[in-house]
Amino acid sequence: MAYLEVITGPMFSGKSEELIRLLRRERIAKKKILVIKPAGDTRTAQEVAARTKDMESDIFKKSASFPAQPVGSKDEVLELLNAEAYDVLGVDEAQFFDYWLLDLIKELKLDGTKADLRIIVTGLDLDAWGRTFGTMGDLMALANSVQKLTAICFVCGKDAMYTQKIGGSKKQIEVGDTDIYEARCERCFEPVGLIPNPK
Q1: CA pair distance 172, 48, nearest whole angstrom
Q2: N or C: which end of the chain has fewer CB within 10 A?
Q3: Strand (E) positions, the chain?
Q4: From CA 32, how far away is CA 46, in angstroms rounded?
């Protein structure tokens, strides 16, 4: 069975940074790596990017990156996986994928020919209303290991486990950065009002 690892937490917690660190180790070990990202995530082109807050300017800047293939369907991913014998599948921003991603990972875990495949998934566990985001809860339940990261609260500096929406619309899925989102601790988190359950 393929081995599934999930790295989760709020925005600005270092999920992509940890994914890139693990992928670079696999590259050093001469492993064949495929990384996918949602086609709708337009913040970066064909890469996973990690950002670090610059202490002088107080702005998040790109600190590391790794090539990634934007995809929009299960068939696209299967075509990529079947083209070469990959050792590692990296998945960034899994909360933006539809439920086909969960089906795909279940199939890969049960596929005897993919027994040595290492799957590393990153994504937000909670949305801006504090609810499980997309397939992330199911992926965490299916995972062989889960690493839950915290950020630093933008308000008080304590450990933050929530993503606070401070602008934009009331849509659950809205790609943005510090213009729309902040990391918040439990005390400083304020759900932005009720919206219909997305399921």
Answers
A1: 22
A2: C
A3: 3-8, 33-38, 47-53, 60-67, 69-71, 88-91, 118-123, 145-148, 151-152, 159-160, 162-165, 181-184
A4: 17
Rounded to two decimals, the pTM is: 0.87
In the chain, the N- to C-terminal Cα span, in Å, equals 29
- pLDDT by residue (tens digit) across 161-197? 999 999 877 778 787 777 889 999 999 999 766 554 5
Q: Is residue 192 part of a domain?
A: no
d(CA 153, CA 46): 30
On whether residue 7 sits in a domain, the answer given is yes
Whether residue 181 lies inside any domain: the answer is no
- Residue 10 resides in a domain: yes
CA 108 to chain centre: 19
Distances (CA, A) of 192 to 14, 52, 104, 186, 195: 24, 26, 33, 14, 9
**Active-site position among 17, 47, 93, 182:** 93
**Residue 47 among the catalytic residues:** no
Q: Enter the tokens of residue 60.
A: 């998040």
CATH of the domain at 80: 3.40.50.300
Whole-angstrom distance, CA of residue 124 vs CA of residue 154: 17
Write the burial class of residue 15 (CB in 10 Å: 0-12 exposed, 13-18 middle, 19+ buried).
Answer: buried
Q: Cα Rg for the chain, rounded, in angstroms? A: 17
pLDDT tens track for 55-97? 566 666 665 778 899 999 999 999 999 999 999 999 999 999 9
